[in-house]
Amino acid sequence: MESQSPISRPPTTGEIVTDRLFRGMTFGFAWLIIFLVVWIIWQISVTAAPAVKEHGTSLLFSDKWDGKEHFGILPEIVGTLYSSILGVGIGAFFGIAVAIFLTQDFLPPRLEVVVKNIVELLAAIPSVVYGLWGIFVLIPAIRPTCDWLHDHLGWIPIFNTRLSSLGLLPAALVLAIMVIPTITAISRDSIASVPPKLREAAFGLGATLWETILAVILPTAARGVWGSIILAFGRALGETMALAMLAGNASEIHWSVFAPVNTLAALLANKFPEASKIEMGALMYAALVLLAITLIVNVLGTWITQRSTIKGVR
């Protein structure tokens, strides 16, 4: 009889060489990505340096932009944060609801996979398609409701203007749809990682399904859920085309959800093609501000998500 090869054996020379090459390549690519990020920040900073030196922090608190002498991005900062908070708030409500729906046996397994794939496909739709859909479908659909809110509740600051062709609310609704896949995917993993014994114990104590979900499962998965919301917030901050097409691009500070606004990303997209050398520096200054805000939010979201994963493993 032929002798069978042992189950365990020392690696061959080829396997050792392949392993070392693979480790070297991954190490090199990791440092290459770090170098690329640093290089991008450096190039933006060099271009923005004249504007930073000339305007200092006054550019952050001014609301006038004429492209020649006066550059202010306060309305864009407010518009970026306002639209992102509103959009992520709406998206978080539906995203967490979908995550619960997909993890608590509301659907048969096959149908659950279909719904999960459909939600994930939302992330594959180009931003410009969302913008066109918002212009031709969403705005005509919500205008009667917006007019009713303005006519009957116009004394409330968030409804004190009438929705024109573009505005904050359509942009926020489209933004909400765009962040739902991010919130749903991470929240679903966090909720699914909750130990089944907690759920069984809650049922054993007489809790209903929804009492178990709201009082046991969601609090246990809270870190992961919050992490998904913050990561989606970082995604929303950098969204460009959909907001440039829907928000209205008005460099004014409005608190009404029906008023047109502008964002930092939309400002860069709209001004960059025809910008002069002086205006280019101011735009790169705005890009640095947007980069800093996005970086802080993403680092915070990643940290919360990692803490949630470590806690779940323990």
Description:
This protein is mostly helical. Helices cover 72% and strands 0% of the residues. Helix 2 (74-103) packs across helix 5 (168-192) and helix 4 (127-153) packs across helix 5 (168-192). The mean pLDDT is 86.
Gap from first CA to last CA: 49 Å
How would the global form be characterised? flat
What structural class should be given to the helix and strand makeup? Answer: mainly alpha
Order of helices and strands: HHHHHHHHHHH
User: Main beta sheet, described?
Assistant: none
Task: Give the integer mean of the pLDDT values.
Answer: 86
Proportion of residues in extended strands: under 5%
| Low-confidence blocks of residues | none
Oligomer: single chain
Number of strands: 0
Figure out the total of helices: 11
Radius of gyration, whole Å: 25 Å
Give the helix level as a range of percent: over 70%
Helices and strands, with pairings:
Elements: H1 13-55, H2 74-103, H3 109-121, H4 127-153, H5 168-192, H6 196-204, H7 209-220, H8 222-237, H9 241-246, H10 264-271, H11 277-313
Helix pairs in contact: 1-11, 2-5, 2-8, 4-5, 5-8, 6-7, 8-11, 10-11
What attributes does this structure have?
314 residues; 0% strand; mainly alpha
Describe the structure concisely.
72% of the residues lie in helices and 0% in strands. With 314 residues, the chain is an all-alpha fold. 37% of the residues are buried.
